[in-house]
Design goal:
The chain is mostly helical. It has 13 helices and no strands. Helix 2 packs antiparallel against helix 8 and helix 4 runs antiparallel to helix 5. It is globular and about 55 Å long.
Length: 400
């Protein structure tokens, strides 16, 4: 079991390094203002793609061990809803183009959002079905193509931030559809779903989607608040710091997801679920803590060596933000336990409460203390989110 978890976690860490390694090229090929645009919209795409999952990964993991037919219906549920969401987003982004001065390239957002949503689910599907080869190819090849394609084009043609995102979205969607088509076992079709299951999936998906929205807003609330408070150059410096630690957050998220199938299976068989969850939590921390420490002490060298002098001010911001990302990574594990208990309604209320308070504190502290206040709010918000989620998960396991 440990070997499997480490295999998937190792691949996840390597794939998370690809955007990080490509970032110096993107910052050099885009102007500071264009990078600020790219970083902001990339963060928005990350939020929206998480919402579009509608809790499907957790639902699929739950039903996979119980009823393979229901697990296949979860995939149909995700595909049909993502198709609907795509056209809704396309309508709204097209409206922004026609009725405002937004660039036509803002249409990149729905393409990239749906591509990333399907990508995240397919990774989870490979993980649950123990398809290590497909997991490796999907993880490494997709991210390599997505980030290297616009970099190669920018060597010959000047692009804006939104144009870079459009290329990324098209490449990810095209390559992912090719992978899904070649995977004969993946049900790449929309089939009828039984009414009771559909009702359950929508209920769980609604709570999970709003939870993802609030959790994602907490993640990018600092950039949303500072976008209106800083000029383009200062925002770009902060955005780089946030992007650097987001790469680590992505790696921790994937590691957490790598733990979840074994964790769920172990909890199903365990008579002492609290003790089982605690043992997996210790194992999870032993994996992520050394990575966080190494990353913290490497930041100064990485920014100095890989980026221009325009971004040297991002180092202290990134080091402080890393504290918040560590609490976020602990929350990733705690939320897996709550979703195992199918208590998406609890996660909904926790997310709404913490999300609203976090956004209000970020706005207030930004007004009082500027960037330092926003960073402090980010750290405290994720700490509170983790503690409350951990408490809900503990009480739930104790009463099972």
């Amino acid at each position: 079991m440990i070997k499997r978890v480490l295999s998937y976690s190792g691949v996840s860490i390597i794939s998370a390094l690809i955007p990080f390694l490509c970032l110096p090229f993107i910052t050099r090929l885009l102007s500071v203002e264009e990078y600020a645009e790219y970083a902001f919209w990339y963060a928005v795409i990350t939020v929206l793609s998480s919402i579009c999952l509608l809790g499907a990964p957790s639902s699929y993991t739950t039903y996979y061990s119980q009823d393979k037919k229901k697990a296949s219906e979860v995939i149909s549920f995700l595909l049909s809803n993502n198709l609907f969401i795509f056209f809704v987003m396309l309508f709204f982004t097209a409206s922004l183009v026609f009725y405002s001065e937004n660039s036509l390239y803002i249409l990149s957002i729905p393409i990239f959002v749906i591509a990333r949503s399907l990508y995240l689910f397919y990774l989870h599907y490979c993980r649950v079905n123990q398809k290590l080869y497909s997991f490796i190819v999907t993880n490494l090849a997709t991210y390599s193509l997505v980030f290297l394609s616009p970099i190669f084009i920018m060597l010959y043609i000047k692009l804006t931030g939104l144009q870079v995102l459009l290329i990324m979205g098209i490449v990810m969607l095209a390559f992912l559809l090719l992978l899904l088509w070649k995977d004969r076992q993946f049900p790449l079709k929309i089939s009828p779903i039984s009414t009771p299951l559909k009702s359950e999936l929508y209920q769980f998906g609604l709570y999970s989607g709003i939870h993802s929205l609030m959790a994602s807003l907490i993640t990018i609330s600092d950039r949303v608040v500072l976008k209106g408070a800083l000029d383009s150059e200062d925002f770009a410096i902060y955005a780089l710091a946030a992007t650097l630690v987001s790469a680590l957050s992505l790696a921790f998220s994937k590691i957490s997801q790598s733990f979840s199938p074994e964790l769920f299976a172990a909890l199903d068989k365990s008579d002492n679920k609290v003790n089982t969850a605690y043992k997996y939590f210790i194992g999870y921390v032993l994996v992520i803590f050394p990575i966080a420490i190494i990353f913290y002490f490497s930041l100064s060298f990485l920014v100095t060596f890989f980026f221009t002098d325009d971004y040297i001010g991002s180092v202290p911001y990134a080091q402080y933000l890393l504290v918040g990302v560590f609490f976020q990574s602990l929350y990733f594990y705690a939320s897996q336990v709550v979703f195992y208990l199918r208590r998406s309604n609890a996660m909904f209320w926790i997310s709404v409460l913490v999300g609203v308070l976090g956004l209000l504190s970020s706005i207030t502290l930004c007004f009082l203390y500027g960037i330092d206040g926003v960073i402090f709010s980010f750290i405290i918000t994720w700490f509170v989110y983790f503690i409350i989620t951990l408490r809900v998960g503990y009480l739930g396991l104790k009463n099972v």
